[in-house]
Amino acid sequence: MRAHQIMTRSVISVTPDTSIVEAANIMLKRHVSGLTVVDDSGKLVGVVSEGDFIRRSEIGTGRKRGRWLRFILGAGKSAGDFVHEHGRKVAEVMTTSPVTITEDTALAEIVDLMERNNVKRLPVVRGDKVVGIVSRANLLQAVAGLAREVPDPTADDDHIRGRIIDAMEKYDWCPFGLNVIVRDGIVHLSGVITEERSRQAAIVAAENVEGVKKVHDHLCWVDTMSGVYLNSPEDDDLAKAS
After folding, report:
1. Nearest of 57, 100, 109 to residue 81 by alpha carbon
2. Which residues on adjacent β-strands are paired with residue 38?
3. Which of 52, 77, 96, 109 is most exposed, with the fewest beta carbons within 10 Å of its own?
4. Are the C-beta atoms of residues 131 and 162 closer than 8 Å to each other?
């Protein structure tokens, strides 16, 4: 399997000038743990993740280094820490020159890159433009699909997957972080919904794509006010049966 067969295509991006507060609110609202950062031309210039918000002056979690350690590390390190903890824009906290993959990168290489670079997500680029993202959640979904003992995806499955995503992305009810896995015409939908009627809309949209034999619902419902979430009825039933 390769990146294009499991990646999330609807990538949420911000610019280097986006404020820290706005980026944090986007991540909370869209239930994602990281955002790609692109310039005005759409070129990938960085990645900002929840880890970049851990050491912040607002919540009193800035690094406290002893005088001797500050001397050893030098003024440059101290200055860098200060910018990261007090910066007001994404450009001041983001990871620059992020590790990227292409649509044809094999899953084994993706896992190796994640482990070697200690990252949870990898932007998928075509040239210098972001076309998708592969996260640990995407890999988990792929493992779950294989665990169901279904065949590897065929070229037809790839086409079906693309048509399903295209059919949903143009609507405002499209699940956040939508991911679609197709094996032998069997579809597995995952992502986050905040309105229960979006679940049925997503299922119907997939069912209307030619070549789809069956649709499995793994969409997670989240209450945007409280953060409470519920697994899909199908996943709940599987958990009870196991």
Report:
1. 57
2. 44
3. 96
4. no
CA distances in angstroms from 225 to 53, 113, 241, listed in the order given: 21, 36, 31
Question: Whole-angstrom Cα distance, residue 135 to residue 30?
Answer: 15
DSSP per residue over the chain, as a string? -BGGGT-B----EE-TTSBHHHHHHHHHHHT-SEEEEE-TT-BEEEEEEGGGGSS-GGGT------HHHHHHH-HHHHHHHHHHHH--BGGGTSEES---B-TT-BHHHHHHHHHHHT-SEEEEEETTEEEEEEEHHHHHHHHHHHHTT-PPP-HHHHHHHHHHHHHHHTSTTSPEEEEEEEETTEEEEEEEESSHHHHHHHHHHHHTSTT--EEEEEEEEE-TTT--EE--HHHHHHHHH-
List pLDDT tens digits, range 210-229: 999 999 999 988 887 776 77
CB 107 within 8 A of CB 6: yes
The CB density around residue 232, as the number of other CB atoms within 10 Å, is 18
Q: Look at residues 27, 177, 28, 112 and name the one whose alpha carbon lies nearest to residue 37.
A: 27
pLDDT in tens, 34-77: 899 999 999 999 999 888 888 776 666 556 665 655 556 565 66
Q: Which residues pair with 4 in a beta bridge?
A: none
